[in-house]
Design brief:
Largest sheet of chain B: none
Number of strands of chain A: 0
Shape of chain B: flat
Strand content of chain B: under 5%
Number of helices of chain A: 3
Number of domains of chain A: 1
Number of helices of chain B: 3
Order of helices and strands of chain B: HHH
Radius of gyration of chain B: 16 Å
Largest sheet of chain A: none
Oligomer: heterodimer
Number of strands of chain B: 0
């Protein structure tokens, strides 16, 4: 097994670990904002590591660029979504349960 | 390499299934939306991991569409108002 493959496997495992951490945080943490914190950060880092791990398997350069683009889109969407959800929860509008 | 990819994909799918617990117990719509966001991100991860295993490079375009739709879903959810009886 060559070092590049070994490194890519390690990145994939770390990515999976971050996803598990995010999911555990979403289920176990006590209040809404800490759950939001666990979810948005851990998941985006996990996806970043998975993209890094998949990079050596990219058949061509364009595919690698698309991988990075997917991650960038998810990060931007995640940050925006987290802010929108937090603002909405702070204002308390539209919430069924107070 | 593909057993490792499939294992990580399986872990991600288990995470999606575990996220359904949060959808079920709530307690606020925000929590449910967060679980939906988790499912979107994990789903993108699963698709990206399956693309080399299945040798279908076009799956990455599916992942791109998923990432765009997840953003639209969150934005649409946060624009919803409780007092909006118009529709």
């Amino acid at each position: 097994m060559d070092p590049v493959q070994l490194l890519s496997g390690a990145f994939l495992l770390v990515g999976g670990f971050f996803f598990v951490a995010g999911t555990v945080g979403l289920i176990r943490l006590p209040d809404r904002f800490s759950r939001l914190h666990a979810l948005t950060k851990a998941d985006n880092v996990g996806l970043g590591f998975i993209v890094l791990g998949l990079m050596p398997m990219a058949p061509d350069l364009f595919y690698g660029l698309k991988l990075v683009l997917v991650w960038l889109l998810v990060v931007i969407a995640g940050a925006t979504g987290a802010h929108l959800i937090a603002k909405r929860a702070l204002r308390g509008d539209g919430e069924d349960v107070r | 390499m593909s057993p490792l990819l499939l294992t990580v994909a399986l872990v991600l799918m288990a995470g999606i299934a575990a996220g359904l617990i949060r959808v079920a117990i709530g307690p606020t719509p925000s929590d449910r939306m967060m679980a939906a966001q988790l499912m979107g991100t994990s789903g993108i991860g699963v698709i990206l991991l399956l693309a080399p295993v299945l040798a279908v490079p076009a799956l990455i375009d599916v992942a791109l569409i998923f990432s765009l739709l997840a953003a639209v879903a969150v934005t649409a959810f946060t624009r919803r108002r409780l007092t909006n009886h118009g529709d």
